[in-house]
Amino acid sequence: MKIAVLGAGMVGRAIAEDLAASFDVTSFDKSTESLAILAQRAPSVKTQQYNLTEPGGYNALLKSFDVVVTAVPGFMGFAILKQVIEAGKNVVDISFSPEETLQLDALAKEKNVTAIVDCGVAPGMSNLVLGRYNEEMKVHNFECYVGGLPKIRKKPFEYKAPFSPVDVIEEYTRPARLMENGCIVTKPALTEIELMEFEGVGTLEAFNTDGLRSILYTMPHIPNMKEKTLRYPGHCELIIALQRSGFFNINSISYKGLDISPIEFASAILFNEWKLQPGEEELTVMKILVEGEKEGVKQTIEYTLMDRYDVKSQTTSMARSTGYTCTAAVHLIAQKLFKETGVFPPEKVGRNQSCFDFMIQYLKERDVIWKKKELV
User: Fold this and answer.
1) CA dist., res. 310 & res. 152, Å (int)
2) Which CATH homologous superfamily contains domain 2-120+317-369?
3) Which CATH superfamily is domain 125-308 in?
4) What are the pLDDT digits (tens) for 89-122?
5) Which pLDDT tens digit goes with each residue over 279-335?
């Protein structure tokens, strides 16, 4: 089976490397540097330079492939996903575009395509867990807390981005949608900061971000749902200061006769400040809570993840936890364990017990260990 991976960034490389153990994989990216790193790490992966933002051409580009993975920045994601579906190719997407991917469901059905979207760690595994337990209990409350953090804390931000700073800033500026008492409410990102304790890492701050995405519409019967991002304490205050000072503004300003985009300027500065250096260790922390009733008895299910940089393979925890969730879904399609046509966020995949178990086991085999606990 032939797999096309669109995007050879940090996560895209991990996806291509993992899939190459089972499939004939070709990675596409505009960056020759990214492709060269991948070719050195995984010689069996074919590489091809291609400007993925060019409109059209996807029918010819993807003609020989059986399944496609889209691992591109969010601002590119929706347009590329649409073109892949129009090309009639089954696809797993981790681009986390701001657009609602469910609006492509009719197109996917028309093209007889299976599209599993938002299939990373969060959104991704959080959705999968909720989808599974929604089948087993009457869910009243869902909470997700997630963050990628550097092992070594360096002032002032004590943060490193495993992906583009533009996407991180988007997370910090996009209004957060939550479900409260059965109603979708919108709050500014970076609000309702609270301190939480996590084993192995200590005190972290949690704040609102727009991470619920599809489950607001696929699970509207659940009255209370929220997702919060985790960072080391103090990070949020710095980001709010930058935001209020105008560094994330989209509209250009004039400076010495030049038009300068504040957000592009800030991204360029933060790219160097937040860039993970080769071999720099980081970790991914996550907690999922599903509360409800089963046969009249209150039940709370907790799933936790503490994943660290893999020194042996030199793969970041965020690339592992995100990328291997994606590759597990590729195997679901390849092995015909999931065959429905349309657009499916992971909560719709998690409804199937065998698919859920397969993905949990697949991640476990790669030492991405999800721990389950039933709380009293």
Assistant:
1) 15
2) NAD(P)-binding Rossmann-like Domain (3.40.50.720)
3) Dihydrodipicolinate Reductase; domain 2 (3.30.360.10)
4) 999 999 988 899 999 999 999 999 999 999 999 9
5) 899 999 999 999 999 999 999 999 999 999 999 999 999 999 999 999 999 999 999
